[in-house]
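Please go through this chain and its backbone structure tokens and walk me through the local backbone shapes. Keep your notes short.
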Amino acid sequence: MQKSFVMIKPDGVQRELVGEIIRRFEKKGVQMVAMKLMKIDEEKAKQHYCMHKEKPFFNELIKFITSGPVIAMVMQGEDIVSVIRGMIGATAPKDAMAGTIRGDYVLDMGQNIIHASDSVESAEREINIFFQENEIINYSLATKPWVYSIKI
């Protein structure tokens, strides 16, 4: 089973979109195997955004992601990285399709409410930054098909 890292950023928490975002994942059938509310310190933020270290917006990224609480999650499923990326939509609000999380809730690229790993390799690296192995709970989802009885 593939795993992906997902984070609801400080603006998503402040706008009280946590329940809505998690609901979307649950309705899709995405399995959550870890979740925690946390405030990211500067060291973790720099680890998370290390690929942007030389870019001019790096300090703003660090300032934003450490500005308030986030919800860090690990999701699991078949081809889960691309499934989640499709659900969240493009980073730039003008490119995010309606029906995606960013397409429905984001107007500003700097505050785009959610992060999701862009590859299996990134997922592994990001999960290891925010979670210890014993915090990830592997379990099987129980399926409960509804049976409809029609009396004629």
Remarks:
- Residues 2-133 form a domain with the Alpha-Beta Plaits fold (CATH 3.30.70.141).
- The longest strand covers residues 31-38.
- The chain has seven helices and four strands.
- The chain has one domain: 2-133.
